[in-house]
Amino acid sequence: MKHNYLLLSSFILVIGGIILTSNANGPASNGNRATNAPGDGATKCTSCHTGGSFGDVSIDLTVNDGNGAEVSEYAPDEVYSVSVNVSSSMGTPSGHGFQAIALEDAGDTPLNGFSNAGSGVQFSVSSSRQYAEHSGPSASGAFAFDWTAPSAGTGSVTFYMGANAVNVNGSNGGDNAVLFEVSFAEMADTNDTNSNQPPAGIFAISAQEAAIQVFPNPVQGIVQLKGLASNQIVEVYSIKGEWILSEKVMANTMDLSSLQSGVYILRSEGKKYKYAAFKRKLLEIYEHPMDQQKEALYNTILDWMGTDHEQIDDICIVAVRI
Q1: Comparing C-alpha atoms, which of 278, 280, 284 is closest to residue 317?
Q2: CA atoms 170, 173, 174, 180: torsion sign
Q3: What is the chain's alpha carbon radius of gyration, rounded to the nearest angstrom?
Q4: Which long-range contacts (CB under 8 A, 24 or more apart) does 282-290 make?
Q5: What is the DSSP letter of 221?
Q6: Hey, which of 194, 281, 295, 297 has its CA 20 to 30 A from 59?
Q7: Which domains does the chain carry?
Q8: How does DSSP classify residue 29?
Q9: Residues 16 and 36 sit within 8 Å (Cβ to Cβ)
Q10: How far is CA 280 from each of CA 106, 275, 285, 286, rounded to the nearest angstrom?
Q11: What angle do CA 103, 108, 111 make, to 5 degrees?
Q12: Which H/E stretch holds residue 284?
């Protein structure tokens, strides 16, 4: 019997990485940056390591705190243990490799916070950017290292990664590869640094948010969401911050029967239409004619506002045809 455990969060998080064969000793050590991260250039592992028979390559990345608990957001200046497991859906690769970089979302600035390399892991610097990567093909595909979170005020951080399953034939042919990214938000301030005023992480919670109830928990199908506004959008994320689905909640219920057993984060935007939702909408409609895109955006705003709220801010969207 499957059970899904639910968490409420106002934060999203992200991460990313890369690969191996002709770069058997680590791509960045040879000056190659292939994570597909901003600033890495056009080269990426999936454009080189092709033609293999190992099926789909996957990356399982976990970030654990000092108590061994997996986290979905980071506390500034804390040291975390990072585990990377690379696997494939078919065959028996002769080796696996990876490369990862962590960037500050604001400005895509490299954080260079990796340390304590585990077996088969090395740290390489290319163009003043630090990468964690394999030091040689790994039969197990298991890698570990530490990451020191940036200072307070940095904001969200994304790990960009690439990984591959290889035949170790001395070339890039006959391999399979994948790209991956995941983001981590900065944990809200829970220390009293405001002259005995409520900490920022507590002060930011509205009365409505504090009144939201989720039951039953764990849930096997239909979950009850009490305290949400009518027609409010609720998003479901994995514990690693990967977006799973979003749904307009009707009658305070949501069907989660399609999810696998695990722990999930429920996130509600309230009445704020933020960048992530806007970006998803643009990705849905960008291939449509311009007049249809305009109509879709207009209807999205009307649907988001509902009938109980009037517009209080100006909205301006400029589209440029290239």
Answers
A1: 278
A2: positive
A3: 22
A4: 290/319, 290/321
A5: S
A6: 281
A7: 10-186 (2.60.40.4060), 204-268 (2.60.40), 271-322 (no CATH)
A8: G
A9: yes
A10: 19, 9, 9, 10
A11: 35
A12: helix 275-285
Q: Which residues contact 89 (CB under 8 A, 6 or more apart)?
A: 54, 55, 56, 57, 58
Give the C-alpha separation, 7 to 313, whole Å: 31
Phi, psi of 201 (to 5 degrees): -65, -25
* Paired residues of 76 in beta bridges: none
Residues 6+ apart with CB under 8 A from 141: 85, 86, 87, 93, 96, 163, 165
Q: Please list the residues that pair with 289 across neighbouring strands.
A: none
For residue 264, with 0-12 CB atoms within 10 Å meaning exposed, 13-18 middle and 19 or more buried, which class applies?
buried
Within 8 A by CB and 6+ apart from 23, the residues are 29, 30, 32, 34, 97
Q: How far apart are CA 252 and CA 268, in angstroms?
A: 13
Quick: pLDDT tens for 56-103. Answer: 888 888 999 888 888 888 989 999 999 999 998 888 999 998 999 999
Cα-flanking dihedrals φ and ψ of residue 227, to 5°?
A: 105, 0
Residues, the chain, total?
A: 322
pLDDT at 193: 46
Name the β-bridge partners of 221.
Answer: none
Q: What are phi and psi of 61, to 5 degrees?
A: -115, 130
**Top-ranked range on mean pLDDT: pick from 125-129, 255-259, 284-288:** 125-129
Query: Reduced to 3 states, what is the DSSP secondary structure of residue 164?
Result: strand
Q: Which residues pair with 17 in a beta bridge?
A: 100
